[in-house]
């Protein structure tokens, strides 16, 4: 919870100010989550989303004027906190002394004079004749009648003293020093038109308002439940009901605020479908009842985002589930389907986020090549599995490019944390249309983004609100679609970049044409980029440019030339016009190779552009020491990784020929080895050694998510062969000692025979 209050207390408001004006005035600078105005007392409370906004509001609004009234603004104090005396408040004020215990001889006479001023002695006849006394009291005037009952009023006021709840941020001196109960006690001793105009008893004498604070209107039902029943209910359900929340509260805000009490299994903030904002309440489901109970005790009544949080025990979540007895009566296949659907929403483990249906992959490739799947996969061929792996790799690379162009952060797939609004849709047939899939998810809420690559093998659906995404996930997980079953997975958190456009997938044919063109251009850049990175000079220096010539203009002139990559006009800031730039009269052109750059010099040297004849020369870039160090460090890191790749999770049916055929497409292989067991069977892993580290890295990036014979390949750089024989012997001895220690520990901790691991998995997979 917030260490400082996010509510402010305002005093000195105009008496004719209404709540709309009050909210508008204090919401002009910062977002207001709550506004409470008490016009009779000329005070109010304003809640902000964060304590920082509240502090800024105090600094901005304090000692300012609203109309002709000067207001005072300060941070509100929590309910129940004792008020602090403001500087300059006199401690010798007689009314203040009436509330305090007597510390000297003068205090008691002052209090007596205040309460019993003008008190007249009672006639002695009252003691002798009680009936006469009762008759005289009944026939007195109303004002005198109130005076004779002053003692009863004082007694009621004293009883009320012990029940008064200190309002939040009670900082007004007049309000805290003279409670209404003392005004009523001294009303008969002072001639005042205010008292005369109020013949009825004042509401401050009633015990009900003193036990109720304005901020907690409607929150009285908690007090009617015994504390033991509340604790028992919270422990049983492990759920809490939160109300009086801001309409801008998000699930992440509640997770952050309540994460310190224990693991949260679910945070549910209902959304109003008409307005799109929250309804002002939420449900929290904790992993244990003790965590929920501790959160209830510590957070109830605290300030959260400018509002007083009210927490009640919630009933157990209603779920229409079959009990174990009814489930056991169903067929085994039906039981497994029901259990799998139940566990889908809470499952966090997935083999592969970019998993694609193998049949859909082959259908996509066959459709693109204009052949049938039977022609693509020759049943008589021995490398059909390798062909399918190559096709899947091509589709995966194409899908990644499409997602990157639409603002998807591919690095987010490496994170374990999952979001609540985006869903990965997988394993649907190739003939499934984007409109059909989108219509299926639109039944559960408003879709913010829908991305389906032209390959038609995977899709990303992002909803506006998390409850809608959860409802769609629970309803559509493992649902049959055409001849397949939908696989749904919660997308990683922060999947989309901040600058990602709100795009929607179009027809497959249109998108396919655009993607093919972009893919061919990227392949061209990839092919030419290898030569440029090899250290060849491909940059030209252009002189005598017109100062009005821009980079776009220069690019349009040189774009038709073969091998042209980029053009740039050198500029500087304009000292006379801040924010604008001036051309420096020269620029640079980048070509793919030296030959193409030389051809450009021959063709364009002396060309007239905007009235100036261009002068082209080869650019020899000065050696930058920092850049050279960066290149050396990058080369060292790349070389440290080595050229040898270990392929884990390899199917036992895969042969050395299959591994070579799969990896040979990404570089020249030095060697391929598939270790065998004593019975000549494969051990489930292999090694591929490339000639250069760059080729090994390219193979790693391309085949990272590829499947071979239904198994996802797990790739990693293998440990290099040690040059020193003594170092190898020392490593082997260390490994053997670790295994012996584990065996000894197992004997000490467990008496029975039990299978356990004596070494790391990777130790046995490293190249010896």
From TrEMBL:
Which GO molecular-function terms appear in the entry? Answer: mRNA binding
Top-level taxonomic group: Eukaryota
Which stretches of sequence are listed as region Disordered? 115-134, 164-232
Q: What is this protein called?
A: Multiple RNA-binding domain-containing protein 1
Task: Give the record's keywords alphabetically.
Answer: Nucleus, Repeat, Ribonucleoprotein, RNA-binding, rRNA processing
This molecule's function is given as: Involved in pre-rRNA processing.
Instruction: Identify its protein family.
Output: Belongs to the RRM MRD1 family.
Biased composition of type Polar residues is found at: 184-197
């Amino acid at each position: 919870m917030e260490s400082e209050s996010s509510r402010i207390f305002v005093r000195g408001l105009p008496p004719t100010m209404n709540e709309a004006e009050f909210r508008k005035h204090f919401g002009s600078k910062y977002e207001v989550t709550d506004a409470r105005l008490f016009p009779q007392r000329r005070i109010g409370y304003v809640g902000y989303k964060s304590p920082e906004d509240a502090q800024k509001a105090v600094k901005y609004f304090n000692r300012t004027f609203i109309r002709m009234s000067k207001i005072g603004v300060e941070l509100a104090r929590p309910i129940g906190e004792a008020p602090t005396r403001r500087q300059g408040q006199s401690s010798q004020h007689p009314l203040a002394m009436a509330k305090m215990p007597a510390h000297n001889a003068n205090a008691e006479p002052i209090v007596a004079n205040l309460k019993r001023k003008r008190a007249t002695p009672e006639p002695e006849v009252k003691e002798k004749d009680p009936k006469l006394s009762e008759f005289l009291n009944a026939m007195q005037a109303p004002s005198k009648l109130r005076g004779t009952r002053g003692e009863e009023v004082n007694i009621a006021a004293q009883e009320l003293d012990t029940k008064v709840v200190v309002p939040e941020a009670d900082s007004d001196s007049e309000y805290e020093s003279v409670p209404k109960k003392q005004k009523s006690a001294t009303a008969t001793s002072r001639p005042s038109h205010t008292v005369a105009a109020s013949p009825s008893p004042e509401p401050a004498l009633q015990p009900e308002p003193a036990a109720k604070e304005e901020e907690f209107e409607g929150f009285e039902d908690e007090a009617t439940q015994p504390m033991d029943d509340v604790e028992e209910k919270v422990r049983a359900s492990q759920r809490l009901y939160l109300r009086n929340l801001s309409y801008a509260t998000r699930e992440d805000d509640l997770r952050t605020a309540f994460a310190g009490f224990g693991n949260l299994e679910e945070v549910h903030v209902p959304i109003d479908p008409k307005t799109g904002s929250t309804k002002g309440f939420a449900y929290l489901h904790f992993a244990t009842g003790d965590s929920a109970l501790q959160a209830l005790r510590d957070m109830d009544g605290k300030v959260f985002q400018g509002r007083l949080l009210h927490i009640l025990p919630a009933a157990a979540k209603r779920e229409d589930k079959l009990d174990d007895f009814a489930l056991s009566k169903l067929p085994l296949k039906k039981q497994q389907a029901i259990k799998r659907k139940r566990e889908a929403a809470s499952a966090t483990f997935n083999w592969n986020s970019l998993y694609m249906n193998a049949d859909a992959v082959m259908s996509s490739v066959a459709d693109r090549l204009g052949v049938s799947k039977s022609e693509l996969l020759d049943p008589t061929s021995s490398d059909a599995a390798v062909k399918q792996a190559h096709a899947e790799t091509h589709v995966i690379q194409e899908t990644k490019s499409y997602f990157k162009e639409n603002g998807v952060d591919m690095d987010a797939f490496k994170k374990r944390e999952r979001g609540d609004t985006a869903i990965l849709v997988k394993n649907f047939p190739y003939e499934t249309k984007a409109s059909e899939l989108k219509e299926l998810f639109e039944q559960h809420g408003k879709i913010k983004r829908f991305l389906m690559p032209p390959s038609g093998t995977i899709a990303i659906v992002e909803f506006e609100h998390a409850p809608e995404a959860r409802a769609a996930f629970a309803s559509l997980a493992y649902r049959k679609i055409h001849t397949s079953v939908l696989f749904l997975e919660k997308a990683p958190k922060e999947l989309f970049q901040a600058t990602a456009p709100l795009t929607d997938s179009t027809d497959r044919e249109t998108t396919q044409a655009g993607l093919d063109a972009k893919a061919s251009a990227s392949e061209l850049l990839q092919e030419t980029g290898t030569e440029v990175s090899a250290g060849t000079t491909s940059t030209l220096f252009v002189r005598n440019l017109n100062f009005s010539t821009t980079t776009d203009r220069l690019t349009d002139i040189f774009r038709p030339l073969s091998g042209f990559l980029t053009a740039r006009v050198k500029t500087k800031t304009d000292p006379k016009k801040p924010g604008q730039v001036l051309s420096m009269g020269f620029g640079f052109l980048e070509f793919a190779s030296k030959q193409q750059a030389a051809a450009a010099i021959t063709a364009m040297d002396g060309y007239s552009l905007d009235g100036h004849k261009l002068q082209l020369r080869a650019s020899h870039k000065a050696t930058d020491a920092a850049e050279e160090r960066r290149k050396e460090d990058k080369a060292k890191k790349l070389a440290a990784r080595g050229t040898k790749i270990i392929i884990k999770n390899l199917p036992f049916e895969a042969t050395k020929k299959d591994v070579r055929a799969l990896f040979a497409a990404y570089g020249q292989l030095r060697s391929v080895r598939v270790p065998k067991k004593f019975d000549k069977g494969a051990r489930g892993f292999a090694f591929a050694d490339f000639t250069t580290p760059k080729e090994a890295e390219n193979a790693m990036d391309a085949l990272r998510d590829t499947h071979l014979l239904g198994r996802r390949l797990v790739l990693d750089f293998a440990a290099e062969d040690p040059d020193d024989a003594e170092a190898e012997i020392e490593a082997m001895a260390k490994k053997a000692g670790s295994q012996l220690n584990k065996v000894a520990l197992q004997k000490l901790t467990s008496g029975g025979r039990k299978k356990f691991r004596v070494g790391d998995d990777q130790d046995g997979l490293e190249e010896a």
